[in-house]
């Protein structure tokens, strides 16, 4: 954190899920134009104005001065504003790369002449707009303790709060109740579910909806497929290695600690 990043006319260039940096900072659009770009576009009316996005293929060789930075590491290195802008760029790039053909008739899509964030089928007129997938993330509390679990996908074995995508037809509350039940086998008190905060999350193109809920019944029994282990943690028992400050999970855990008088960097 703390590295100032100049967004003016910056280009967010992606390669296989990472952001490319030039001399340790974001490149300008002119500097990015020197790379073997596969696709590119502008932010249009999105903030920060004047920025652009681009992508290079996975096997493209980077010239001297360029380096690849993991998207999560980018957020920790440059802070929340930079992470937010990068997330928007990623969302546009990833959406466009997956909107190349018409879902109705299979024709190659073209950028809409009237809206730069829409793809239009030249044959049948079908329009595609950027897709955002809602997901819930929840801090479940029981008698002043916080539910934390280790996800099998997380190779560092770090404890975090539970999260999952909303399914078709579900409300946020439905998803909270179902995910907690499926993943660790406990029931939450539906009337206690509170919505707190949201954040666009570029993995792949989600809107994370942060909630708090109270335990109602049942003992923890991790499902063993998605969740490896889970436990109730008093504020002073929360492990030192918690998710980063640009993540919603990190925000929820720090919020829990803060309410118990503990500040975590
Ligand atoms: Zn079509």
List keywords for this structure.
3 domains; five-stranded mixed sheet; 5 helices; globular; binds zinc ion
Average pLDDT, to the nearest integer? Answer: 93
- Count of DSSP H/I helices: 5
Coarse morphology: globular
Portion in strands: 25-35%
* Fraction of residues in helix: 10-25%
Question: Runs with pLDDT <50, length 5+?
Answer: none
CA-to-CA gap between the ends? Answer: 11 Å
CATH class of the largest domain: Alpha Beta
Structural domain tally = 3
H/E topology pattern: EEHEEEHHEEEEEEEHEEEH
- What is the alpha-carbon Rg in Å? 21 Å
Fourth-level CATH superfamily of the largest domain: Nucleoside Triphosphate Pyrophosphohydrolase
User: Main sheet, how many strands, which sense, barrel?
Assistant: 7 strands, mixed
Bound ligands, each once: zinc ion
* SS class: alpha+beta
CATH topology of the largest domain: Nucleoside Triphosphate Pyrophosphohydrolase
CATH architecture of the largest domain: Alpha-Beta Complex
Total beta-strand segments? 15
């Amino acid at each position: 954190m703390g590295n100032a990043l100049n967004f003016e006319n910056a280009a967010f260039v992606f390669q296989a899920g990472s952001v490319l940096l030039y001399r340790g900072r974001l490149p300008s659009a002119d500097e990015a134009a020197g790379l073997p770009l596969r696709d590119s576009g502008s932010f249009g009316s999105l903030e920060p104005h004047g920025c652009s996005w681009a992508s290079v293929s996975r096997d493209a060789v980077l010239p001297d001065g360029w380096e690849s930075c993991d998207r999560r590491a980018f957020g920790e290195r440059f802070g929340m504003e930079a992470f937010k802008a990068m997330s928007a760029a990623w969302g546009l790039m990833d959406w466009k790369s997956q909107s190349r053909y018409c879902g109705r008739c299979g024709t190659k899509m073209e950028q809409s002449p009237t809206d730069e964030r829409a793809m239009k089928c030249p044959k049948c007129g079908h329009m595609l707009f950027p897709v955002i997938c809602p997901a819930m993330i929840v801090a479940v509390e029981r008698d002043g303790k916080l539910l934390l679990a280790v996800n099998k996908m997380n190779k560092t074995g770090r404890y975090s709060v539970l999260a999952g995508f909303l399914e078709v037809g579900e409300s946020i509350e439905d998803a909270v109740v179902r995910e907690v039940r499926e993943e660790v086998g406990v029931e939450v008190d539906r009337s206690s579910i509170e919505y707190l905060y949201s954040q666009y999350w570029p993995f792949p193109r989600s809107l994370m909806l942060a909630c708090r809920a109270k335990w109602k019944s049942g003992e923890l029994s991790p499902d063993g497929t998605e969740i490896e282990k889970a436990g109730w943690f008093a504020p002073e028992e929360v492990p030192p290695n918690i998710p980063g400050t640009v993540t919603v999970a990190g925000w929820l855990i720090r919020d829990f600690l803060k309410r118990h008088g503990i500040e975590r960097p």
